[in-house]
Every structure is written in structure tokens, then in C-alpha cells.
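Incident log entry.

Two folding requests arrived from the same account within the same minute. Monitoring flagged them as a possible duplicate submission, but the sequences differ. Recording both here for audit purposes.

Request one:
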Amino acid sequence: MMEYQSMNRQQLEYAVLLAFEVIFLGFAVQAVLIEDTTRFYVVLISMALLLVPVLVEKKISIILPFGTKSTIGLALFLHIAGGINRWYWKFMPYYDKLAHGVSALALGLLIFSFFLVLDYWEIRVRPSRILLWTFVLVILFGLSWEVCEYYIDVLVQSSYNNGVIDSILDTVSNIIGAIIAIAIAAHYLRSLPRGETPGSLLQPGK
């Protein structure tokens, strides 16, 4: 019964990914029509990135925790749509903070999945450390991104970084996303049957 439910959820998530790919294809056409070459390539890269978790699942015969792939798709969607449709600027600063929070959530779930894969390969990390390092790595990546935004603005005279307050609010959004990711990860870890290791969460029917 559990394996049947797991397969149903997997099929649902694959359907969501397919929907995102179709939407992204529409964005690619839109980018061509408005002659935005840079964002056209960003869309193509995003479409490829969205397939990576699926290919990993097939390659090593696992199923990532439910919601991981969909959240990655949502994060990519917000980034692409925000650029092509100018939503980052039209709905400033709220849209940007939403995108940061969702991206931090997606990254957190991806890092959590990475630790599950390590455990699946019998490289053991205690659950408490999995949660700690997932949080730390999300925050470090977010801070690194803020630094990158600053230097991109300096080099190409763009406006990705809007000062210290903007960076602080971005970091707060990242922390919120990371906390939600940790809460979801903790829920999965608490659901483990006695005697099972975290890597068993990647096995069909878990």
C-alpha cells in the first residue's frame, strides 16, 4: 500500500515537472520575441536543471523526498518569470523576497536529499548534523549570492543589489526558507521506522 502511494506521489510530481517544462518553453519563446538572448539561455539552462533530479533518480534507483523536485521547479519558475516579465521590478521588493525564500527552501531540500544519498551509500551522518549542515549551507550560499550580486552590479552596472537593507531582507527571507526546509527534513527523519537509517527515505515505498 505504501509503495502504491509512493508511486502515485511520484507520478504527481513528474506531472508537475512536465507542466513547468511546458511553461518554461513558453518563456523561451517569449524571450525570443522580445529579443532577450540572455534570458533565453537562462530558460534553456533551467529546463535542463529541472531534469537533473529525475535523471539522478533513474541513475541510482531512488525517489527523492516528495516535494523536492516540485519546489526546485517553483524556484526556477519564479526566477525566470521575474526576469522576463519584469516582476522583480514591478513588485519590488516583495517578489524578490518571495523568490529568495522559495529558492532557499528548494536548496535546503536539495542539500537534505544529498545527505540522504550519502547515507544511502553508507556514508553515515547523524540526523542532527544533517539538519544543522543543511541550514548552515543554505545560509552560506545565500550570503555568497549577495556578494556575487554586488560584484555583478559593479561589473555590468546592473541593479541586482539595492543596498544593505535589501541584503538584510534577502538574508531574512533565506533564513525563513531554510527553517521551512529544516522543518520538512525533520518531519521526514522523525517518520523513519526504528532501526532504519535516513537513506531508506530514498527507497520506493518508504
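Request two (distinct sequence, not a duplicate):
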Amino acid sequence: MSRNTFLFFICMVVSSSLTCTTNVFAEENKLVIPESTICADQELQLNGLGTRKKLFLKLYVASLYVQEKQDDAAKFLQMSQASCMRLNITSSKITAQKMVKAVRDGFDNATNGNTAPIEAEIGIFLDWLSQPITKGDVFEFAFVPHNTMQVSKNDTALGVIESKAFSSALFAIWLGDMPADKKLKSGLLGTSHTIQ
């Protein structure tokens, strides 16, 4: 059996409701990334994906799902369409404390240091991330126009934040002018694949 045939078979077994791909995947992390998915009751298509790396560590695989594909970050961050950011944790080195710090720094970068207008929302979000994180966890940040961000972990809802400004800042952590990882940003926008 060829590698692609095997991956397609696994994808179909995992979920017959998803449209799967055999050429977009994170083989080294044993992940199959579907070309479409249901997120917050929305049917979305894969816009792009990539691996967040730090030094030699592969921390997580991020995949961005949208209604209509978009390779312009500025237009995407206007938050005019339903979208979903999915993080598959692939390293045991990620702890809740490290995640909270990284996301806090990300909000600072995304807002040019002006987090005051959304500080309350950031506090709520970081509290959700403060629970123990283990390799294999899956986070989903689903934006439902025009103001709603639904947050879940391992298919369990953590809560909802009603703020378009917060939602834009959250996605700007990966897609803004000062992203967490420039190569990952390119991958999420579909201009390159950075899984390897």
C-alpha cells in the first residue's frame, strides 16, 4: 500500500464527514490535516497550515480554515468571514505557563503594545489557557461573524468572547505585522507549506 493511499484510508476512518487530502499533512507528527472541516457549526475550507518551531523544537501544527481562501493578511484581519484557527500540540515541552506567556507577548505584538481596549477579554482568554496542556491537545479558535469568538479544547467548549477587536488581535498573533513565526504566517496564508 502506498503512503498516500494509507493516509487517505486513515483519514476516512477518522471521520467520514470530512473532505480529506492526501497531499497536505504533517507526517512527522502523525497528523492528517483535512481540506475541509466543521468548526463551530461552520463548514470551512483549509486556507493554509504550518508548524510553529522554536530552535529545534516543533511545538504545534497550526491550520487556518475559512469560508473563502485569502492570502492577504490585512484583509483577513478585518474579520469579515467565518474562520477557525486550529492548534495541534505536538511537543511535550509546551506547558500552560509557557503558552500563556507566549500568547500574552503575541497580543502585545499584535496591538503594538496597546492591549488596554481588550484587556478584559485577554484576561478571560488567558485564564482558559492556564489549564494543564499536554502533547496531543487540540485548541480551536472559531470566529463567527460579526463579533463572536468561540474557544474550545479537545472538542470541549471553554467559552465565548463577544469582541471583533479581540478576535482580530488573536488571529494577528499569527497573521499580523509582527507574527509569532514568519514562515508559519506564510503557511497559514497558503503561500508556502512549512510542515517539514
